Amino acid sequence: MEKITSLAKRRGFVYQSSEIYGGQNGAWDYGPLGVELKNRIAGAWWKEMTRLHDNIVGLDAAILMHPRTWEASGHVENFTDPLVDCKKCKSRFRADQIPQENLAAKKCPDCGGELTDTRKFNLMFKTHIGPAEDTASIIYLRPETAQGIYVNYKNIIQSNRMKIPFGIAQIGKAFRNEIVTKNFIFRTCEFEQMEMQYFVKPGTDEEWFAEWRKQRWAYYEKLGIKMDHLRWHQHGPDELAHYAKDAYDIEYLFPMGWRELEGVHNRTDYDLGRHTQFSGKDLQYIDQDNNNERYIPYIIETSAGLTRNLLMIFCDAYDEEQVSPDKNSGGSEGAAGSADDWRTVLHFHPDLAPITVAILPLMKKDGLAEIAQDIRAELKEDYATDYDQSGAIGRRYRRQDEAGTPFCVTVDYQSKEDGTVTLRFRDSMEQVRVPRAELSARIRSEIKAYKRIK
Ligand code: GAP
Asked: Whose Cα sits closest to atom 18 in ligand 1?
C-alpha cells in the first residue's frame, strides 16, 4: 500500500487533504490524474447501469435532506459503531475490530492501558442549518445516497412513467464519521458512492437479487479486473444491516487483505414502508397493467464505493516489470535503455485510463514537435491526450506507463517522409507503424478489442 500511496501522490492521483496544515484525517484530494480516473470510473458505471438498461434512470439528489429522512431510514437509531477509548494512550478503537480478549480484559491492544466501556457512536455527521444552533435546526450530511432515491421514487414514476421492475441510479458524496480511517482512501469520512435501487414486485425479489449479483460480477470482469482477486461474502445474521433480508459483498484482495468493495442488498419493503409511515404519504405502487394492484415494492440495491473502486482499480492495475532494452526505444532512432531497467506500470483498462493517448516527438527540432502538436490537436476531440517532448524517449514512455496511458504515438524522422507514426502499446510494449490518417480509427478499434494480458 505504501508504494501505491506514494505513486498516487507523486503522479498527481491523490493527495492528502489540507496537507500544508498537517493533513485532515479521513479526507483526500484527487489531483489531475485522479479526478480523470474517478470521472472515468463513474462514467463506466453510469453507462453500465443506465445506458445499457432501458428501465434504469438517473438521479442527483441533494446531500442535505429533511432530518425525518434519517429517522425513517433507521440511521438515527441504528447507524452506530461500538466504540472504546484507551484512557492511557487516548487511542480509539472499534470494539468489533480489536481482539476479544482485549475487550474482555479492557486492555488496550496498543499500550496495555485501561479501556473505557463500549459505547454506541452514531456515524452520521450532524450540523445545523440556518442561524440558530438549536435542536430544531439539526441536519445531517447523508451517510448513503440511497435515501435520496427512495424519497424521489414516486416523482420518478410519475414524471417518467416507470413500470415495475425499474431502477434508479445515482452517484454522489456520502459522509460517515468513521472511527478508524486507515489504508489510504479505503475508508474515509468523505467518500463517493455509486448506488442503484431496483424496485420489484414482492415475491420476485429473490430472483432479482440473484440477477443483480450476476450482473455486478460480470461488470468487474468486463473492466478486466483480476477475477481471482474478487470473491463473494454473504452477510451472516449478525452482520446484516437493519434494513436487509439478505446481503452479499463483493470483496477484493487489497494489499491489506480481503475487504468489501461493493454490496448487493435485498432491502425488502423496509425503506418505502418506513417512509410511508414517517411522511404519511402513500408510497404504494399502482400496477395499472394488473387491475390496479397496489403494493409497496421490494428494493434490490447495488451499492459500490466510487472512491473505493478507484483504490481497487489502482491496486489491480499496479505492476513492476523488468524491461528489455529493445522494448525501451522510440523505434529505429530511439535511445535504448539499460538491460536491467524496471518500469512501474498501471494496466488500466483504456476506458478508464486518465490519459488515453500521449503524443511524443522523438526530437523537439526539425519540425517533429510541430507534427506531434498537430496530431494532438486532431486526437483531442476524441481522446484524453497528453503531450511530452522532454527527456529521452524511454524515460517518457516510463512516465506514461506510470500514469497508465495505454497508447503512445511517437513522431520520428520517418513520419516526415512517409506520414506514418509509431503506435506503442503500454502492456506489451510492442510498437507498430501506422499511417497518420488511420491513427484515430486504429486507437478506437484497439480500445474496443482490448483484453488485459497481465
Ligand atoms: N446504501 C447501502 C450502503 O451504503 P454500505 O455497505 O454501508 O451500504 C456501500 O456502503 C459501499 O460504500 C461499500 O461497499 C464501500 O464501497 C463504500 N463505502 C462505505 N463506507 C465507506 C467509507 N467510509 N469510505 C469509503 N467507501 C465507503
From this structure: 305
Tens of pLDDT, residue by residue over 190-201, are: 999 999 999 999
Side-chain-side CA neighbours of 430 within 13 Å: the count stands at: 5
Q: What is the structure's pLDDT at 329?
A: 53
Residues in contact with 428: Cβ distance below 8 Å, sequence separation at least 6, in sequence order = 453
* Ligand 1 atom 22, closest CA: 187
**In this predicted model, what pLDDT tens digit does every residue of 401-420 receive, in sequence order?**
999 999 999 999 999 999 99
- Structure confidence at residue 340 as a pLDDT band (50, 70, 90): low
401 close to 344: Cβ distance less than 8 angstroms: yes
Over residues 246-258, mean pLDDT: 97
DSSP letter assigned to residue 226: -
Going by alpha carbons, the residue nearest to atom 9 of ligand 1 is 303
The H-assigned helical ranges of 304-412 are 306-317, 368-380, 393-403
User: Among 173, 193, 195, 212, which is best to mutate for testing ligand 1, by the most ligand atoms less than 8 A from CB?
Assistant: 193
Alpha carbon distance 11, 311 (integer Å): 15
Q: Are 331 and 394 in contact (CB under 8 A)?
A: no
Task: For residue 55, report the distance from its CA to the centre of ligand 1, in Å.
Answer: 25
- Per-residue b or e along 395-426, where b marks 16 or more CB atoms closer than 10 Å to that residue's CB: ebbbbbbbbbbbbbbbbbebbeeeebbbbbeb
Q: How far apart are CA 209 and CA 203, in angstroms?
A: 11
